[in-house]
Specification:
The complex is a heterodimer of chains A (394) and B (136). Chain A has ten helices and eight strands. With 394 residues, chain A is α+β, with helices and mostly antiparallel strands. In chain B, helix 2 (37-46) packs parallel to helix 3 (63-73). Chain B is 46% helix and 18% strand. Chain B has 136 residues and is α/β, with parallel strands linked by helices. Classes of the chains: A alpha+beta (394), B alpha/beta (136). Chain A binds chain B through residues 163, 166-168, 170-171, 173-179, 181-182, 185-186, 201, 205, 245, 248-249, 251, and chain B through 13, 15-16, 18-20, 22-23, 26, 57, 59, 62, 84-86, 104-110.
């Protein structure tokens, strides 16, 4: 029999257990809400109006039964009143339901990480205005919380990448150290040509370090997000460079295929890199030693979109956990290894850029994440004048 | 002890071989530098080297595989593993599998010469003791 205190401590410490418990509580609450007879507002209006019609009809029939002659001039105002009541009830219920449907749509949008505030849909204020204002305040809070969550996840990813990047830097650094020492030791015995060759090697390796550091800096820098025109192929290649050493360390192979002449995309370069770094790191985790990861960038079948597919040949994601993989803190890795924020953060970034992220798995073959991104006609030359800081989108 | 120690240098970074081959030849070793680890495996199979210096993280074949192949071929061979990845577990794995020493990148040519000299000394002692299995 487990000690209740122990169970409580384990639950508090493990995000995976906490996430599973939260899911169970939500499911139980939703089951209670849905497992009741339906008495919708729309039906209440219809039934109420039906009863009213029935009363009017019974009065008419009762009068007819006792021989009272119904004069059409008397019945007309009553009929008109009934019709008007019916029309008003219909319009009120329609207006009411439109706002309810809009709120349901909003909750779906929020669940996907889109925190765009709600705007007015009519000229006048009503009871729902207060609800919308409260929702917009909640969205503001959620956005702040989500930004913090993204930042935490980005820092975790930087930690993972730094280990790989340090190896990548150590190689050119080692070449510089060996070359400089050899130059110093053997200087008098070297020909001018050999000396020039070694100096060229030193410069080449320094450039290599600079390139690696700059790439990591682009990903790790802090600051406001910007909305720029970006080359998706280049972005994916730079991301692959960041994770190449993780791949080397795990013995996995990364193949990149980029369709030529792709349209540009808009967004924050760092955030897009965060999405791709996360998808590739996940793929590396899933495929394990000697895994194979294919990154394919192409025009999407939907017009106006480009797609990035990240596919791995590791074990597939079981069907029963597929609906939850984008939930915050959902992780299949042991406690302390993964944050469980990667896919949730990625989905938030993709949705805010007007894109979509999907997963498909085929048993025994692959797991593929597809990111669909809206393309843009704004060329990078025009981009300088169009580049803007857009904290709302970040 | 043989007159000239046969050293095999395996690193997929061309510059490592370019610099270390003359630096080690200068002090009297017979050095073969290879960038392709697959080719290195074939050479290990064909020849018995006294000392093998190998990078740990390379495409296709890693340093641990080179180490295993070298140990399989001859327990006499001393394998020095170079790593750019400051990973204690990796170093422990290499030592457990029979590596003579692990050197972290970046290093000076003199650092490697010292380790090779120690390995040569160990070979010498072992030679005098009549080719016993190497100490771990």
């Amino acid at each position: 029999m487990p000690n209740p205190l122990e169970t409580e401590i384990i639950s508090a410490l493990s995000p995976q257990i906490r996430s599973a418990q939260k899911k169970r509580v939500t499911e139980a609450a939703n089951e209670k809400l849905e497992d009741r007879p339906c008495l919708s507002f729309r039906w209440c209006v219809f039934v109420g109006y039906g009863l009213l019609l029935l009363c009017a009809l019974s009065i008419f029939l009762a009068d007819a039964a006792i021989g009272v002659q119904m004069i059409w001039e008397d019945a007309l105002p009553w009929g008109a009143l009934l019709l008007a009541t019916g029309l008003v009830s219909f319009l009120v219920s329609k207006r009411f339901m439109k706002r309810i449907d809009r709120l349901i749509g909003m909750t779906r949008q929020i669940a996907q990480g889109d925190f765009t505030p709600i705007g007015p849909i009519s000229k006048y204020r009503d009871e729902f205005t207060a609800v919308n204002v409260a929702l917009n305040r909640m969205l503001e809070e959620l956005d702040t919380w989500h930004t913090g969550m993204e930042e935490s996840h980005r820092l975790a990813a930087i930690g993972t990448l730094t280990a790989g990047v340090s190896h990548e830097i150590n190689n050119p650094l080692n070449n510089i150290m060996l070359t400089a020492h050899c130059l110093e030791e053997e200087y008098p015995d070297l020909s001018n040509e050999e000396r020039r060759e070694m100096i060229a090697d030193l410069l080449q390796e320094t450039d290599r370090v600079q390139k690696i550091v700059r790439n990591l800096q682009d990903f790790a820098r802090e600051g406001e997000c910007s909305l720029d025109t970006l080359e998706l192929g280049k972005l994916v290649e730079e991301t692959a460079l960041l994770v190449m050493n993780q791949a080397k360390a795990s013995g996995a192979k990364i193949n990149i295929k980029i369709q030529p002449h792709l349209p540009y995309i808009r967004g924050d370069q760092r955030q897009w890199k965060q999405v791709f770094v996360n998808l590739v790191l996940n793929a590396l985790d899933a495929s394990g030693k000697e895994g194979k990861i294919d990154i394919h960038v192409e025009k999407d079948a939907s017009p106006g979109f480009v797609a990035v597919h990240v596919e791995n040949n590791g074990p597939v994601i079981p069907q029963h956990i597929l609906p939850y993989i984008f939930n915050p803190f959902f992780t299949t890795t042991p406690p302390g290894k993964g944050t469980g924020l990667g896919l949730s953060v990625s989905q938030g970034i993709v949705t805010r850029h007007g894109g979509r992220i999907d997963v498909t798995t085929r048993d025994g073959r692959y797991t593929r994440f597809t990111v669909r991104i809206p393309s843009t006609d704004i060329a990078p030359e025009q981009c300088k004048s169009h580049s803007e800081t857009d904290p709302k989108n970040c | 002890m043989k007159d000239t120690l046969k050293v095999l240098l395996v690193d997929d970074e061309k510059m490592v071989g370019d610099r270390l081959k003359p630096a080690l030849t200068k002090v009297g070793y017979s050095v073969e530098a290879l960038m392709d680890p697959q080719k290195a495996l074939r050479r290990i199979d064909e020849n018995e080297f006294d000392i093998i210096v190998t990078d740990i993280m390379m495409e296709d074949v890693d340093g641990i595989q080179i180490l295993e192949a070298a140990m399989k071929k001859s327990h006499r061979t001393r394998v020095i593993v170079i790593t750019g990845y400051a990973n204690v577990n990796l170093a422990r794995e290499a030592m457990d599998k029979g590596a003579f020493d692990v050197i972290e990148k970046p290093f000076r040519p003199g650092d490697l010469r010292n380790v090779i000299a120690n390995a040569a000394k160990a070979l010498d002692i072992q030679g005098e003791m009549g080719h016993q299995s190497p100490p771990n």
